[in-house]
Structure formats: C-alpha cells, structure tokens
Amino acid sequence: MLERTNEGNKRETAAVLIGLALLVALPFLADAIGKGFYVTLFTRILILGLAAVSLDLILGYGGMVSFGHAAFVGIGAYVVGILSWHVFDGSPLMTWPVVIEGTENGFVVWPLAALMGALFALAIGAISLRTTGISFIMITLAFAQMLFYLAIGLRTYGGEDGIALYNKSGLGSSIDLFDKTTFYYVCLAILVVFVWLCRRLTRSRFGMVVRGARINERRMRALGFSPYRHKLTAFVISGAGAGLSGALLANAAEFVGPAYMSWQRSGELIVMVVLGGMGTLFGPVVGAAAFLLLEEGLADLTEHWQIVLGPVLLFVVVFARRGIWGWIAGPAREDR
Amino acid sequence: MNTLLLVEQGLNGLQLGVMLFLMAAGLTLVFGIMDMINLAHGSLYMIGAYLTATLTPLVGSFVLAMVVALPLAALIGMAVEVVALRTLYRREHLDQVLATFGLILFFNELVRIVWGPQPIFLKPPDWLAGTVEIIPGVPYPAFRLAIIAVGLAVAGFLYLLITRTRTGMLIRAGASNREMLGALGVDVKRLYTLVFGLGAALAALAGAMAGPILAVQVGMGESILILTFVVIVIGGLGSVRGALVGALLVGMVDTLARALLPTVLRTMMPPSQADGMGASLASMTIYILMAAVLAWKPRGLFPAHA
Amino acid sequence: MLETRDLYKRFGGLVATNHVSLSIEAGELHAIIGPNGAGKTTLIAQLAGELRPDGGAVLFDGRDVTALPVQHRAAAGLARSFQITSVFPPFTALANVALAVQAHAGHSFRFWRDAARDGRLTGPARQALDLVGLGPRADVPAELLSHGERRQLEIAMALATGPRMLLLDEPMAGMGPAEGAGMVELLRKLKGHYTILLVEHDMDAVFALADWITVLVNGAVIATGTPDEIRSDPEVRRAYLGEETV
C-alpha cells in the first residue's frame, strides 16, 4: 500500500514483463547461440530463485532472519530421494502402521516434499520464534545443522555420500522431465505460480500483520495483535516453498545429499535475497540469477573464486542495500 | 560400558566443554556488549590452529609456537574489527550475518591458497604425548588433561579479569547495559577492539589446542562455531558464566550421548542399525537439549540483559 | 471505567510509581500532569499492560487486568497512543488505520484477498481518518506525513481499534501552535464519546479540556480534582513553580 509513483509502478511492471519474456524465450536463445548448457544453468536459477522467494517471505516481509533455510530445501530433496530409492530397491518405506511403498510420481512426491518442509518448519519455527534477534539467527542455524547431521546419519540412504537418483519424478506420459527444456518450463511455471501466490499473500490481511510485525512488533501488540501465530504461519508457508524447491533440485541434479542442508547453502540463500532485493518478490529471483552467474563467471577465472565473493558480499552489505531489483524497478520503498 | 570407561568419557566431555568455553567466552561478550553477531569467530579458531601448526616446526616447540600464535591471532582479530566489523555494530543483524559470512568465505579460501586443501596433522609435544593415570585404572592422554587444565585456568583468569579489574567492570556494565558505557565516558571504540582481541586470542587458543586432537583443516572453524552458538543460546547471550555452564553442559551431553546411545540401542536392535541410529541420535541430542532449555527459558539460563 | 489500586513500580533504586490509586469514570476526560520524570509514561505503560507493576492492581470495567498482556487489554477496548510517534512508516495512512481496524474487527488469517481493497477494513479506516482530519491524505505513506499529521494518524489508529477508552500519551508533543490547536479541537470532538486518559505537558490544553486532573510528582499523586481545584491547590502551585509555562 506503499505509494509508489505511477511512473515507478510502470517501470516495475515493464521490468517484470521483460524478465518473464526473457525467461520464456531462454531455451530458444540458448539454442540459437549453441549453448544448451544455459538451459540447465537457468533451471538451477529458477529452482534456487523459488527457494530464495520463499525465504524472502519471512526475511524481507517478516523480518525473521532465518539462517537455516537450506534445511527445508534439503528435506524436500530427501523426500524425493528416499521415495525414489525405495522404488529402485523394491522395499517399502515402512510397513507399520500402514504400508508405504516408494514412488516417483511427481504429483504425489512434490506436494509431499512441500508438506514435509512445512511440518519441519512448524516444529522449528514454534521453538525458534520464542526468541528474537541474534538468538533467532543462531537457533535456526543450529536446527538446520541438526538436520544436516541427521541426514549424514541416514546410512541406508547413502549417509555422507547421499543418494544418486535413478529416475526423475514422473508427471504423466506427456511431460518428460528428462528433456531439459521441458523440465525448465515446468520449473518456470511453478516459480511463476509461487510468486503470484506470494504476491496475494503479502497483500492480504495476513500479509499485513506479518509485515506490520517486522516494522514494529510492539505497536502491533498495542493494536491488539498477537503476531506470534502469524509469524509462525509465514514460517511454515516459507518452509513449504523451500521443500518444493528441494524436490525440484533433487530432480535437476539427479542427486540428493546432506550438502544441500549445509549452513553455507543457507547463507547463500540469504545472499541471494539481499543481493536481489529484500521485501520484493522478483528481487530474490534476480538475486539467484546474479549469484549463480557470478559464481559461474568467477569459477571460470579462478578456482579460488570465493576469495572474491567474500569481499563482494561485504561491499554489497555496506553500499548496496536496495539490491539489484531496487535498481532495476526504480525508487520504491517497499513492494506496494 | 563400565564405570572406568564412563569416567574416561566424562573427562572427554569436560575437555570438549572447556574448548567450547574458550570459543564461547569471547563470542558471548561480543554479542552482549556490541549486539553483534560474528560468524567469523570460527575463522580465528582456524587461524590459531594453522599458525600454531606452521610455527611448531619452525620454533621447535608446540608451546612456544602457541605463545607466538596467540598474540598474532589477537592482532588479526583486532585488525578485522577495525577494518570491517566496526562499521557494522549499529547495522541490522542481517547485515552483520552477511558481512561476516563474506569474511568466512574469504578466510577459508585464503587458508586454502596459503596452506593448500590437505589437512595438517599436528603432534602434541613429547612431554604431553603419554598417558596419565589420575584415577587408578584409567589411563588418560596427558595432552587432553593439559587442555582441561588450561581451559579451567582461563576460566579462572576471566573470572578475575571480569570481577576484579576496571576493564572487567566496564565489560560487565556493557554486557548488561550498552548505553551506559557511553554515558560513563568510556572510550567505547577501544574497549570494543580490546574485547574483540581477547575473544580472538581465546578462539585461537582453542584452535591451537585442537590441532593435535583433530586435523587442522579448512572448515574446522565452522563446525565448532555452530556448537558454540548452541552453548551461547543455552547459557544466555552476553553472560560469561552462562557460557561456562552451557559449554560444560553441551560438552558432557554430546560426549556421553555419543558414547552411550549406540550401546543402549544395541540392547534393542541389531548392532549395525543401532550404531547408525545411535550416531544420528547422538549428534542431535545437544540440539534437543537446546530446544528444551529454550522452551523453558527463552532467554537462556543466565541472560545478561535484565 | 479504569481504576488503579495502590499501583507500585520501581526501577532499581528509583520509585517510578508510588502507590498510585486512580479512578476514571466512564465518559470523562481525565488528565495527568506532572513535571518531567514524574512517572507519567511509566504509569501509562502499566495501564496499557506493557509494564508489569511490582504491586497493586489495575481494574478495567471492574475486572482485574493486572496480569493481562498488552494485546489482550487492547482487544478488551483499551487503546493507547504513543508519546514517540509509532506508526508504520512504509504503509499509507489508510493502511495504517486499516491494520488497526483489522486488529479490532477483522480476521487476520485471510490469505487471499487484497487487504487494501477490502471495504470492511478501508471503510471504517476512512471514517477514522476523516474524523481526525486526515481524509485527504489517506494514500500518502506515513513516512511522508508531517509530524503533526502522524500524531493525528496515531489517534485515528487508536480510534479504529474500536476502543472504549483511550490512553493518550502526550498527543501534542512537538507540535506547533496551529497543529496544537487542531489537536485540541479533535480531542474536544472525541470528548464525551470516549473515556480518555490524557497525559500532556501543554497546560492550556489540559485546563481547557479536562474534567478531572491528577497531579503526579516523583511517582506519587499529590493532588486530584477539577481544573479549578487544581489551579488553586497550593501544593500544586509549589511543585509547579516555574514549570507551568512549559
């Protein structure tokens, strides 16, 4: 409800449309210049963009600095990996109290990944949100680390080495995810739908409470709100989005491992959000693109690319807080 | 599992706890006084370990190498504070997270360039290489005992520093009420740098002593950093006493869970399964402990800010 | 309507609220005055539920609310404005008030519909803005409003929670004479419709508006009565010597 000048509004709309058009055209462009590799790279960008948008929901809109978001991504990935492993192995996942067999049906596995992400977020969020500030950061980090060690302990499913997937998820006979262009468009469609849902969400009554709590939680209480439940709900929704992105990531890499949950991954997701623009929905996608392209570009130059990335981060923090999206879409203070 | 083994594991737990305390003491003060989250604290631990590992063959003595390495690490810590972190105190926590995350990437890569990706193995000094039977029937590595002794000595030193000296009084005042320091006319900047240097030296001390027990390698700082966070959350931000209690608690619980859980589970299921599950459960226990403490006291056991 | 019994609060060695007993009747405008540091804001914070008293009780509508947290007191109809303006700067004036309406009347677990186009929120919000005279500025972000306008917005937000009683903490602080006069006009409009507890430094405004005045010095009540009684109270005159022109 923030007043953006009309001109600013138009500029953002234009930027979104151009960006979307570019993403839709990307496989053709990549084909035209003979670099099919870009389709795979941009598939990763879309998937991590999805994870980053889900993080921004709590980080940018809710002011909750969660340093454990990769854990939910990893959980989504493990749902895909474990169920797929059981298909390959021929053994059921469990036999009691009900028999659950492995499956590679995307219509079952992907929603399940989101659901598991949500459930873990509910448990972790319920405890973490009792605290604020530095404690919250440390606790989310610690819980993510706990899940990381749990994944390492899953010896049946590869332990430290993870599981290689023998098959991608199936979405019916007409959609073949082994075709990289098809998979790209599936990811793009999911991202677009998710961003649209988040856009509704952030502008709804619920969204206003979460955003209000970020700006001034004390005032929200004085108005009669109890923001804890709203923040927790946002945390859960965010976990679901991350779980879904994990399911896609597992399919993209055809591999699932504890590294997905490492604390560096959580840090990178935060970097993407801030780099792209906090408190916006398109910014995190742009941030994911910038991060992966930067990584790709630097890795070509030197194997020690992180020694460049580190100071770049410091620079971004000190000088470029509005993020790339703020720079593209014009002088808006907050999305809306 | 008999009593003697239990005693041995107890000593291991004490040793881990002492290491965690060395890490946590400095970090909790930085949290408490500067309201700053510093992820790069683990990098100083790593630097302490690498410096000691490099200097030991050069000066021919582990202890002498440490004596040189600690002030060096403190200087590096203070330099980082002056160059990069000082501007971040008044910024949002998110900025601090990002910036110090960048620092970790930088230091890890720097170490990889200078020392290479291979772990370095460090031997304890000869006179501490053997075992001691402090309790008859329990031979225990002398080096680990030395760690416990050093750690407890540092705890005592910190206690005296904080309760008996003027600097300590300022540190306490700052940890419980930040605004008061400026009002007292203290040179806050210098105090901050000093506290940071102290924290860096303690982290480096922990790193140096960890060298002969664990391998000296890139990333060693982060695994202990996250344990340290658990310690601080349990103990309460900004409280050195909380850090001590939290560190000993975490050290004990973690070590005993790792030692006991597989054995306990073996009575219930086949050994191969029991070992796997025991290991995972054991690595989760301290996080469960943290969750339990938070459910009971959201601000930790000894919150410094009233 | 609102009553305190023997309210007591100390910070270390400083007694901020010293056995304060107040009784505020429904519909009256009760002003609390006192020199700086008399404990007025501390008192309001205890009434609103942000601070727990060390002793004594707060009764709202005859019900003991001493242990009730802020959000529940607000929901029960006790609305508070802040001394330091405390609106949501990035949101428009309308969105600020709509949020207050939502706190009072709406369900907040609605995830789909655009809150800015929800007539059940914006309707009452516009009414409240019109009442305080901010109607034409509804679509301006709060951070672009003038200081006086933000104080008006504070009042509109308090009104929008559908309160039965208003706790106003120095609504005129930092206002120029013209803005101040506007605020007095607004309070006069509200008077009678709401029970109001007003903490204010501006003595002219207080004596013009209040039905009843309580004087607080060093955390304790030194006098309470009608404006005329207070004006002629010798102890008040002594405590306020030189202060009255603030």
From TrEMBL, chain A:
UniProt-annotated location(s): Cell membrane
Membrane topology: Multi-pass membrane protein
Domain of life where this protein originates: Bacteria
A GO cellular component annotation in the UniProt record: plasma membrane
Transmembrane regions: 12-30, 36-58, 70-88, 108-127, 134-152, 182-198, 228-249, 269-294, 306-328
GO function term, MF aspect, one: branched-chain amino acid transmembrane transporter activity
Keyword Signal: no
Pfam families referenced in this protein's UniProt entry, alphabetically: BPD_transp_2
Classification via InterPro entries: ABC_transp_permease, LivM-like
Keyword line: Cell membrane, Membrane, Transmembrane, Transmembrane helix
Protein name: ABC transporter permease
Protein's organism: Skermanella stibiiresistens SB22
TrEMBL record, chain B:
Localization: Cell membrane
Keywords tagged on the record: Amino-acid transport, Cell membrane, Membrane, Transmembrane, Transmembrane helix, Transport
CDD domains: TM_PBP1_LivH_like
Transmembrane regions: 12-32, 39-56, 62-85, 97-115, 142-162, 191-218, 224-253, 274-296
Biological processes per GO annotation: amino acid transport
Family membership: Belongs to the binding-protein-dependent transport system permease family. LivHM subfamily.
PANTHER family given in the database record: ABC TRANSPORTER ATP-BINDING PROTEIN (PTHR11795:SF442), BRANCHED-CHAIN AMINO ACID TRANSPORT SYSTEM PERMEASE PROTEIN LIVH (PTHR11795)
Protein's name in the database: ABC transporter permease
Source organism phylogeny: Bacteria, Pseudomonadati, Pseudomonadota, Alphaproteobacteria, Rhodospirillales
From TrEMBL, chain C:
Transmembrane portions of the chain: none
Species of provenance: Skermanella stibiiresistens SB22
Assigned keywords, A-Z: ATP-binding, Nucleotide-binding, Transport
Pfam families: ABC_tran (PF00005), BCA_ABC_TP_C (PF12399)
SUPFAM superfamilies attached to this UniProt entry: P-loop containing nucleoside triphosphate hydrolases
ABC transporter domain sequence ranges: 2-243
Domain of life according to the entry: Bacteria
InterPro entries: AAA+_ATPase (IPR003593), ABC_AA/LPS_Transport (IPR051120), ABC_transporter-like_ATP-bd (IPR003439), BCA_ABC_TP_C (IPR032823), P-loop_NTPase (IPR027417)
Protein name as annotated: Branched-chain amino acid ABC transporter substrate-binding protein
Parts forming coiled coils: none
Record-level GO cellular component terms: plasma membrane
Single GO MF annotation: ATP binding
Signal peptide span: none
